Amino acid sequence: MKRIRWLSAQWPVPLRILASKMKANAFTEDSYDGFVVERVRDTSVEARYIEKITYQETVTDPFGNEEIFDRVSYRQVDFNLFEDFPNIELWDAPRSFQAYVSKLLELSSFSLSISPLRVNLLDWAVAFQAELRKQVTIDSMQIAGLELETGVSAKVLVTGDKDVRIALDHFVKGRRYVVEKLQLKAKFDSKLAPIHLTNHGSAKIPEDVLEYLLPLLRNSLPNSVSGG
């Protein structure tokens, strides 16, 4: 599975100019961070941001003797930038990618605006189905904020071997809630591909159908975003 996350951005300069600044801040053997630019077009950029992390590790042997070793690791963010929304696409990003965001801000003279997404997952699923032109089945949903009584709310996981949307409507009985996560299954060739979506604009997609399904998820996302 590949984990993709999207963010919104307001570009202060054309992407080709931003890409040239990335190339001027290229990652080399002697640098501690920088970019590797793979492909540049007028409306998109494909690149990686790499951090070199050095630290010391202390190892104690069975006799209590300590040895200190110098260690090096690398943190990498694979990403695509787009002129149109969704503007930033992260591939298998680490839990924290603040250093990457800070570097983009620095290259943009801190005039770049980046915002996380808030997504209506049911709208996204419907828009994706329209792009796919095939029926999809939502067989799992995690909802939160379901009010049981004044001051009491619930987080609920709903699963089934068929589409769970109608059963969920019967269960909530018109009460408000937020869908935090869902799993849908889309038919691809002779098999069902499971796709996991979250309401902050991320998706997990099987790698064998990634090339086909990713553009459809990306294209359908704008129809479901409620704000940044």
Short structural description:
The chain has helices at residues 15-24, 98-107, 121-132, 165-172, 210-220; strands at 2-10, 33-40, 44-60, 66-82, 88-91, 113-115, 118-119, 136-149, 152-159, 178-188, 191-198, 202-205, 225-227.
Overview of the structural elements:
The protein is of the alpha+beta class and 228 residues long. It folds into two domains: 2-115; 118-227, no CATH class. It is 22% helix and 47% strand. The protein contains five helices and 13 strands. It has helices at residues 15-24, 98-107, 121-132, 165-172, 210-220; strands spanning 2-10, 33-40, 44-60, 66-82, 88-91, 113-115, 118-119, 136-149, 152-159, 178-188, 191-198, 202-205, 225-227. The strands form two sheets. Strands 1, 2, 3, 4, 5, 6, 8, 9, 10, 11 and 12 form an eleven-stranded antiparallel sheet that branches. Strands 7-13 form a two-stranded antiparallel sheet. A hairpin with a 2-residue loop joins β10 (178-188) and β11. α3 packs across α5 (210-220). The longest helix is centred in the middle third of the chain and has 12 residues, at 121-132. The chain is globular. 21% of the residues are buried. The model has no long low-confidence stretch (mean pLDDT 93).
